Amino acid sequence: AALKVVTDLDQVSDDRPIVGLEPSAILTLRDEFTRFGIEPEKVERIKRRTFLVEEFLAMEMEAGSISPDQFTDEACTVHVHGHCHQKALSDPNKTVYVLGVPRNYKVHYIPSGCCGMAGSFGYEKEHYEVSMAIGNLVLFPHIKAQDSGVLFAANGTSCRHQILDGTAIKAAHPVTILRNALRSS
Asked: Is residue 125 domain-shared with residue 165, that is, in the same domain?
C-alpha cells in the first residue's frame, strides 16, 4: 500500500503541495515511508511538499496570501489540544498561530499529553478505562474548567471523539474554526 501511495503521489507535479487534515495520516508520509525500502528519491520529493493543513496555512499567512482582514473581528477564545503525532513530528504552535490570525481571537495551548485515545486504543473495550484515565490527567479537567463560550480545537479525529466522550463538549478541527471565522462575502 505504501508503494502505491508513493507512486501515485510522485505523479503529482513537484510544485503542488500535498496537504492533509489528519496528523497521523499525513505525518506518516514524512516519517515512516522512508523506512519501507521505497526509492528514497521519490519519498524525499514527496516529504518536501507534504504538510499538515495548519503548516500550509501558516506558510500562506506568513506570505500574506491569507490576512486578518479576511476574518471576523468578533472576539473568541480558543483552546488547542495537540495531536500526539503533531507533537512528535511537527509543531502544535502552527495551529496556535493560524487560529490567532483573526484579530480578536485569543488562542491558548492546552499543556496536555495524549488525550488517551491513541488511535484505536481507546475504542477497544478492554482499554476504555485506561483511556479515560489518561484524558482525566490534564485534558478533560482543563476543558471542563473553561467558560461555556470557549471553543476547543483538536486536529485529530480520535482526539475530538475522546474529548466529546470524556467531557460532553464538542471540539472542532482548526480548519472548521477558521472557516466559521471567515467574513461573509
From this structure: yes
